[in-house]
C-alpha cells in the first residue's frame, strides 16, 4: 500500500508536467519587433541632391520627385555681332512636374525680341513659341558614382522679322546631362552633350543643327550658395547631321546659384566667346552664327 501511493503521486506529477508542456507549446512564441524594410533605391534616389542650376548654362542631372511641381522664369540675353550691333532678349516660363519615378516633364512658353542695326539701318524681330522638356534619369550618383539623365526637348517657334515675312521654326533637342560629387557637400562637376535639330520654313526652307559640349565645376561656398565656372564648345551645321559645317565657337564664364529660401532659388550665368571661326567670314570669332556675350537669369520656385 505504501508503494502504491508514491507511484500514484509520481504518475500525477508526470501528467501535470506533460499537460503544462502541451499548453505551453500551444501558446504563440514571442518574436522580435518586425524589421522595417529598407527604402527602395532607384536611379533617382540620391543621398545628396545637387541643384540642377548650380553649373551656369550647364545643367545637372537631378529630376523632380514624384508629384512635386515647380515653376520657373528664365531671362536670356545675347549681345554682340561682327557688323553693326545686335541684341536679343527672351523670356521662358516653364512648369516642371515629377510625373513618375525618375521622369520629369516641363512644358514651357517663350517669347523674344531682337534688335539689329547694320549701317544705320535697324531691323527688329519678334518671336513666340512653346515646347515641352522631358527628362528621364538613367543613372544615379548614389548607385553608380555619377548621375546621367536623357533629355528630349521638342519645340516650335514663330518669328516675325521686319520686312521678311513670317517663319516657323521646329526644333528638337536631344541631350545628356551628367554630374558627380567630387568632394561631398563642397565641389561638384557636370558635363553636358546636346544636339539641336532645326527646321525652318516655309520660305526659304532651311535645315540646321547645333552640337554643344560643355563642362562646369560648382563650389558650394556656404550652405545654399554656389559659385561655378564653365567652358562650352558649340558647332553649327547647315544640315541635320554633322556635315556642311558653318562655324564654331568656344565660350567660358562664371555662374552663381543661391537657394534663397527652401522654395525659392535664384541663379545667374555669363558666357563670353573666347574663340571661334565662321566659314563665311574672317576673324578669330564666329559672330555670324553666335553672339559674343550670353547672359542667363533664372528664378525657380518649388512646392
Terminal-residue CA separation: 91 Å
**CATH classification class:** Mainly Beta
Helix content: under 10%
In the CATH hierarchy, the architecture is Beta Barrel
User: Approximately what portion of the residues adopt beta-strand conformation?
Assistant: over 45%
Structural class: mainly beta
Which sheet architecture does the biggest sheet show? 12 strands, antiparallel, barrel
Strand order of the largest sheet: 1-2-3-4-5-6-7-8-9-10-11-12
Mean pLDDT level:
85
Number of helices: 2
- How many separate structural domains? 1
SSE series: HEEEEHEEEEEEEE
Silhouette: globular
Q: In total, how many beta strands?
A: 12
Point out poorly predicted stretches.
1-39
- In CATH, the homologous superfamily goes by the name Autotransporter beta-domain
Output the CATH topology.
Lipocalin
Provide the gyration radius in Å.
32 Å
